[in-house]
Amino acid sequence: MTSNFVIIPLLIPFVVGVVLIFFKDNIKLQRIISVLSLITTTAFAAYLVQLVQSKGVLTHELGNWKPPFGIILVADMFASLLVLTASIVTLCCVLFAFHTIGERRERFYFYSFVQFLLVGVFGAFLTGDIFNLFVFFEVMLMSSYALIVIGGTKAQLRESLKYILVNVISSALFVIAVAYLYAVTGTLNMADLSQRIAEANQPGILTTIGMLLFIVFALKAALFPMYFWLPGSYSAPPPVIIGLFGALLTKVGVYSIFRTFTLLFYHHPEFTHQIIGYVALLTIVVGAVGAIAYSDVNKILIYNIIIAVGVIVYGVTLTTKAGFEGAIYYLIHDMIIKAALFLLAGSIIRITGTTKLKKMGGLIKDYPLLGWMFFIATISLAGIPPLSGFIGKFLLVQGGLESESYTFVGVLLASSLLVLYSAIKIFMSCFWGEPTLSSEHEKVSLKGILYPSAILLAVSVFLGLGAEAVIPYVSTAAQTLMDPSIYIQSVLKE
Length: 494
Prior knowledge:
Elements: H1 8-21, H2 27-55, E1 58-61, E2 72-75, H3 77-100, H4 103-107, H5 110-126, H6 130-149, H7 154-185, H8 190-199, H9 204-221, H10 230-235, H11 239-263, H12 272-293, H13 297-314, H14 321-352, H15 368-382, H16 388-402, H17 406-431, H18 451-465, H19 467-482, H20 484-492
């Protein structure tokens, strides 16, 4: 019976996404159904986390076909925490969309596409075989293609072509890698794959396939040098869609790197993990350079996504429990705080009508609540104690020192200062200095727009101040990643 809770987070958005199609012109009903379904999904996701904590890894065999032959969903603590975080983020983004996305986009199946996007994201987190990881990636990408072009502005159409082309290439590489993997091992079930790769001691051909998968996931996670598509593609759609993409899509790539290189290809870390480490470090450096170089609100925050991806992915190479806990904690924190920042940035852009810092100033006088909320999000992003960013970075530094990754610790601390500088630059330029707005702009109402960001900030503050309550769950997730036998035994029932 408890295994049925694994599939519920997938079923709700799928059914709701289909139902919403039939109410295309009834926007009010679409909003009510969307928000009720997301509250329900969040509640089930929270219950799933508690179930996994009390009963261990849960599995759901579709059609009662036993693994490794049937399709299986697996909810370990790592996947469950990410499902819960993604549910909270999506709920807040949809609440923000009520006041900002516009009726034209709402009538063009915006809420349905968000629900289908969630199906892909949840499925990628919960699937127990690598072919269905590809399938759920495609479900997520098809929905994101629709969301990035919805509204049909010239910038959206231009950037969507680049976005679609990059993802089509990465999907083709993904299929090739999966085909080679099946040809060599004869299975696609991740638990069974882990056993067979261990028995063969991961020969060169499997290491090569592993690195091909890393390229695919690195492209989706926007790691160096495969991040080139991100700044343009993520700056084109409306703020609420940027918030959804920034919080969820690159994190699915990060999750896939963690899953494959902790469960499958972990036998030759001196080669695979070393390359991942170098790529992650370069990603942090490039992201930091981009974040301080731009004077555009969206571009600064987008380059901060790249920095965070590098920080989290480096966690794969840290062989200590503290390192894994830090990476997981930082991943959850980053999903929450990035969504909050993009929604707050959306409010700023709504008031000023521009993304250019030089054209902003003096907003603190008329919008003090917005200003101080942005300030709290900024210091949380930079990892100032006791907010959530600090806990993750503290654990990562501890893990880095324990595994003697001193270069990473130095880069992480230096990047924290640059992240703080880049975000404070937005705060100072937007909210202090001489007002640059006309009296017409100063009358822009933020009624109903700030409370989704307030919810996300409250979660961020809880992750920081309530770390003692959250750490046991993160510790369970880290333990499963460090010991693949927990996952294997739960799936294959050995």
